[in-house]
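During the first year of the project, the team set up a workflow for recording each protein of interest as an amino acid sequence followed immediately by a discrete structure-token representation. This format lets reviewers and collaborators read both layers of information side by side without switching files. As required by the reporting guidelines, we include two representative entries from the current panel. The first entry is reproduced here exactly as it appears in our internal archive.
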Amino acid sequence: MSAPGTGRAAATALGTLPPERRALVERLLRSGTARPAGPPSTSDESGTPKISLFFFSADIDDDPRDKHALVLECARLADELGLHAIWVPERHFDAFGAPYPSPGLLLAAIAASTERIALRSGSVVLPLHDPLLVAEEWGVLDSLSGGRVGMSLASGWHADDFVLNPDGFEQRKQVLEDGLADLYALWRGEPVRRVAPGGREIDVRIHPRPRAVPEVWLTSTGNPQTWRTAARLGLNVLTAMLEQSLEDVAGKVALYRAALAEAGRPATGGEITCMLHTHLAPDPAQARERVREPLRRYLTAHLNLFEKFAASQDLGVHPDDVTDADRAALIEHGLRRYIDSSGLFGSAESCLPAVDRLRAAGITELGCLIDFGLPREDVLQSVRELAGLATRLRARKAGS
């Protein structure tokens, strides 16, 4: 259920734009109009989704020390309450996601502060890095955490990020696959061939190695081919609701499972982790009201980042062409979509039907993005309520 008037305001805002401006606005995020997700499936094929925390702050004016302190506090609380995993991203050179340029460093701090919760990066942009260093770093994290680490890999999408590796941009998807092959070899204790000074070719092994090969996801939202690639490589998938509907996700999950079967893998295998903005409170109306302004700021920051990307890629969308009216219309449209159908907002009890729809779409883990601008006390309350949601899900499954 949306906040009163949210849907009418969004529809009115878009409707007042001339056709060519409306087309430009809708192209910016390719979000489409929110559609009902439909009734939950009676199938229990994907089981009860795991509940995890996801961090991707966009409070651009805040002190990063406060953000990192919040991540650590939430991680300790989630560890105590039995939530499944902590996800932190990799972001560079932009205020959107500014506290997260080094997921390995942050996960090391979390490892030292927790005992059982899984630790993951969503995502390591592998074409920006030498796989030798990534393999070593995750070997150290594995040691610090007692084997609790995993990662999702991404090929990258913003050209400016590739100042770290300009030669890797054009063929970044192939660079990712080649780098993944090196990671697996190094983690198994096998050498990779490299050129040393003087043109000498040498075999290189890493130390320390993880006690077991870490679990790996591939990050994808809009491109169905990435889901096929994940299936071919035997990887899990990390996706998000930021630019697609639940029906879009369900279709890609079906494609992924068919591709697993085509690759000779179990069609029911693989984890599908979905990142979605989340805020839970004892009063569901209060939860929805709390998120309106923080979500507005978050979507505005995301739009600014996308405009920079579109300009750099010559997609026909230039920041100077996007007016204040365009932005306001798109943000209202995004708010309606999020609050209606693309986030998890309410109480532990009121969110159960939404979780059922996510499960029916094939999602096996909810990556609950909680740090999008709410006060610290509200974020911590949401973590406690998510633990209550996980308890309800387990109890319901046990009683079924």
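The second entry, processed by the same pipeline in the following quarter, appears below.
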Amino acid sequence: MKVVILAGGLGTRLSEETKVIPKPMVEIGGKPILWHIMKIYSHYGFNEFIICLGYKGYMIKEYFANYFLHRSDVTIDVCSNKVTIHNNNCEPWKVTLVDTGTETMTGGRVKRVRQYIGNETFMMTYGDGVGDVNIKELVDFHKKNKKLATVTVVTPVSRWGSVSISNNNEVLSFIEKPAENDSWINGGFFVLEPEVIDYIKDDSIPFEREPMETISKKQQLVAYKHKGFWKPMDTLRERNELDAMCQSNNAPWMVWGKDEQCKIK
């Protein structure tokens, strides 16, 4: 099953980083967040990716074009330009990189890669969020429900602390970042049937609006409730929080284990 990753947005709320590089290439733990997302899927045996490029997409192309060299031990004879590979540490990934436009909305990006998806069930997620989602269970859930689309929903964490106060103003409990248990939000990590693309009219359509709303009205959209870790990287603060978790070896989304350590800066 192929995995489509939306990696073409401007990332304006993370402008401190995205003035120079595209948002999916912003590093946490010394690796682009895009790499972390791909490792999650790869851990469950999904190694074929279609990456929808847009803003500064050429940098993502260059990253993967040089990936083999950067991940291998090599001897380079500079006189003869001969390269000898000693040790290959690359993942078994097949990556299709598609320029889907700088102004294209999320739905339009999916529509533009239809020829690479084919007529098979596929997965899709955003290039700026990580979680310890069990991809195998997600796929099994989708197959069991036999609907056109499955979206992973998550409980957001409040930015503000929660304080419980007694009648005499004593603080009974304090939670720095409580979960907002009464609500669920779109966490990405979709499983989709190819027919879903028929609901996307053109480049101007956000995937989360008309296509998903129409499919929902047809009772063809189900929610996979993920109660574990999930976090987006929309701001510099969130990027720093993810990086700190990685540096302290407390990164719940790194479900692939200790074979890849975060780079200590």
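For the second entry, the following points were noted during internal review. The first helix runs from residue 15 to 18. Residues 79 and 85 are 17 Å apart (CA to CA). Both points are flagged for discussion at the upcoming steering committee meeting.
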